[in-house]
Structures are given as C-alpha cells and as structure tokens.
Amino acid sequence: MRWRALVAAVLLALVTTDAQAATQLRIGLQDDPDTLDPALNWTYVGRHVLQSLCDKLVDIDAQLNLVPMLATAWQWTDEGKTLTLTLRDKVTFQDGTPFDAAAVKFNLDRELTMPGSRRKSEIDAIQSVETTGPLIVTIHLAKPSIPLLAALADRAGMMVSPKAATEAGANFAQHPVCAGPYRFVERVVQDHITLERDPNHWRAAEYHFDRLVFVPITDSTVRLTNLRAGQLDLVEQVLPTDMAEVAADKSLLDIEATGLGYSGITINVANGPKADNPTGKLKAVRKAISLAIDRDALNQVAFDGRFLAGNQPFPPGSPYYDAGFPVPKRDLAGAKAALAGIGPVTLDLLIPTDPVRAQIGQMIQAMLAEAGITVNLFQTEFVTLLDRARRGDFQADLLAWSGRVDPDLIIAPLLGCGAAGNDGHFCSEDLEAALAAGRASPDPAVRKPAYAKAVAVLQDELPVIYLYHTLWLYAAKAKLQGFKPLPDGIMRFDGVRMAP
After folding, report:
1. Phi-psi region of 286 (alpha: psi -120 to 50; beta: other; left: phi over 0)
2. What letters, b where the CB count within 10 A reaches 16 and e where it falls short, cover 43-78?
3. pLDDT digits 0-9 by tens, 435-454
4. Mind listing the domains of the chain with CATH numbers?
5. Which helix (H) or strand (E) holds 387?
6. Fewest C-beta atoms under 10 Å: which of 131, 209, 250, 351?
7. Reduced to 3 DSSP states, what percent helix, strand and coil does the chain have, rounded to the nearest 5?
8. Could you read off the pLDDT of 128-145 as tens digits, one per residue?
9. Would you place residue 1 in the very low, low, confident or very high pLDDT band (cuts 50, 70, 90)?
10. pTM (two decimals)
C-alpha cells in the first residue's frame, strides 16, 4: 500500500503546483525597473509594478477622466490656488498602519523635500499641505496649477507608509510598503519582482491572482517566445511587426491601446562638459538632424506602419496638437544647408539595448551620415542610461516619454527649468511663461493657445527631436480575461482573471 500513498502524494504535489500556478500571473516587461520608491522612480516599466504596489490619490479611466482612488472627492477654491481632498475611510497601508490626512501630508512633504525626488518638479506649485480633518487634506498653492490633480494620478499621488518610509530611510526601495492591492515580496535585479495580494486591501475582492511576478526581458522576440512557451502569461511592448502573427494565433490575445506620449532624441544642451559640442550648442545643427530624419521610414520599417510619425510632444489626435507645425518630410538638402559653415559634426547617441531601438538608432545613424553628421551609437543598459543622462554623461539619447493626461505633464517634467527629468538642462523663459499660462486655467480655450506657444518654442529650439508616437501593444494567453489597457499604457489587474 505504500506505493499508493507515494502516488497520491505525488498527485497532490502536482495538483498543488497547478493550483499555485493558476493564481500566479507572470508578466514580461521590456526593461528592468529602476527604484521602486515612487518619489524616486523614473521608468515607465517601474510604473507597471508601482500601479499594483501603491494606490494613488486619484486615477484615470478609459476616457482620460480623473476618477477617485484614495481620494473620494476634491474641490478647487481660491481661484485655483487651493485644492481640498476628501479621503477614503478605513484604508490601511500594507504594514497595518492607517491611511489618513496625516499620511497624505507626510507623502507630499517627502516628495517636495527628499533629495533626488523626481516628483518635486511635478508638484512644486504646492506651498503647504494642511490636515483640516482626519480625512481632509487642504493643499495650498503658491500659484494656480490645474495639472496638479493630474500629477496625483501618477507617482506623485502614490502613497507610501510613513512608518515604513521613516524607519527605512534611504533603504525604503529595498522593501517598499504602500497601500496598493499587492505587497512587495522580493526583487532579484534583472531577474524578477514578486508581489503578493494583500487580503486587507479595500478592493481585495477585485483582484484574483495571489501573486504577480514581473520578469524583465529586453528582447521583444524573446518575450513573445516565452509567452508562447507558457513561461509568461502577459507581455508588454510587442513588436508591431509581430502583432498580425499574434492575432492569428488562437492560443494568444492581441491587445492594443493608443498612447499619450512620444519617442525622441533628447539633446544635452547645458548639463556639464558633454553639452559642449555643436549639437548641444547650436540649434541649427539640431534643425539639420530633424530635417535629415525620415520619420515615415522609421515607422514603416521598425513598426510596420502602426505608429504615428511625430515632431511635437502631442500626437496628431490630441486637442493640443498644433497643425501649424506638420510632421516634416525628410529634407536632405535643407539639412545640409542648415549645416553650412559649421563644419564636421559628430554626435554620440546613447540607445537602450533592445533590438528595436538598436534598429532605430542604426537607421538614424545612416540618415544623418547622408547629411554629413557622424553618429556614434552606444548601446547602454536602460537604468545605466538613465543614470548617465541624469548626471550629464551624454550628448544625446534615444528615449520615450509615456505621456500624461494633462498637456503640461507631457512637457514640463522633462523640459521645465530645473525639472528633475530635464536631463539636458534646457531652460527657456518663453517656454516657462507659456507653461505657466497653461497651468493657470482649466478652460481649454485659454490652455490651447498657451501650449501652442510652448510647441512653437520647442520647434525653434529643438531640445528634443520628436520622432514618433506609439501604440501600447500587448500579447497574452487566450485564457486571460478582463485585461483592458488604458491610454497611459500602465497595466492594471483589477477584474483580471485566468479562465479555467
């Protein structure tokens, strides 16, 4: 009878393994995130993880409306200089401590004062934060800033446990504690990040996987291969050239959403000695680079024509897109004319290590060579690239910005004077004035002319050479149900489950 007991034990182990696998969702990411501290995080892939780890004060819906999350209501008063938030009751952080007005004040103060905070420039209109009730927060602004609420729908609005953040100090990111539906378990850099469902979360019943495992795989083809092999359940950033094949595979789902952001070449114009080169110093050179690039060719070759060519921070479908600056056709003669009298130009361009952006870099290199510009490509691991750019150790880099709901947040965090994300240290009084005018009013009739002025400055100075606007492309197992990506591209897992 012992053999029967042994077989039964083996079968039980197999059933247990299958049950565990059924409650675990494995997600393939394009890159390994940087820090998991919302105040310091600066990667798009990091936002995927943080969305499940850290609830925000507000969120967005499919129509880009701001909707309640940890704040259930809000009100602007004092001509846009005071924002009052009413908070959700009976919410706790993952360490069991209460979420309340004092916690919100702690988080906003932390983001404004923490060394290296990436959120400071997003919320720097805040003058003071006042707890006017156990669940009431009054935010006083030095000047009107309508985009503030939209900023709270991203990492600036992600709430971390004051107790955990205070006790951990600079080591908080090693074991972050927030108020989201999943709590941190472990991270092995360049291998995986594991989160487990928090049964005490205020929406715990809407989350059906016990664990989320995020796996960074920089090669899009390898990610898709792992999905087909059953090693992953969902992957982001599918190659546009692979989407037709995914759609034809009955074992897979093809999923897409229109994005809010852009990809482009950021130029170091004033961040240290590496800005001292013709591209960094002369906008005529930047103009030549823009004219020499065939944006339509980039889209057709690398993205199967699915993306949108672009030359502005706003995609053509945005109400803030300025039709007065249409996407230029390639003008090689114009590029050479812009370089007349300047002499030979050499540009060092940092690009991430994934094959798609390597291909884009190679195409740009060849296009600019025809205009007389020598481009040296340096493939750099993603987080290392971000660090080099922050320190000014670059001449130019090829990166994307995922965009935000508010037009101000598509420009200001990367090109505002002194902004934490302004790696090239571009600073323009005209741009600052245009952005200030756009922030001051909720009226689109006032905001659109303001951002048109901002676009005009960027077209003239070209601190970023905009290239294209992406779609968010995903593939998943056919049994995955309920996954509905939003325009910000961030993966949300409420209501998502795996069919039997």
Report:
1. alpha
2. bbbbbbbbbbbbbbbbbbeeeeebeebbbeebebee
3. 999 999 888 999 999 999 99
4. 24-54+180-259+476-500 (3.40.190.10), 60-110+117-159 (3.90.76.10), 262-469 (3.10.105.10)
5. helix 382-391
6. 250
7. 35, 25, 40
8. 999 999 999 999 999 999
9. very low
10. 0.86
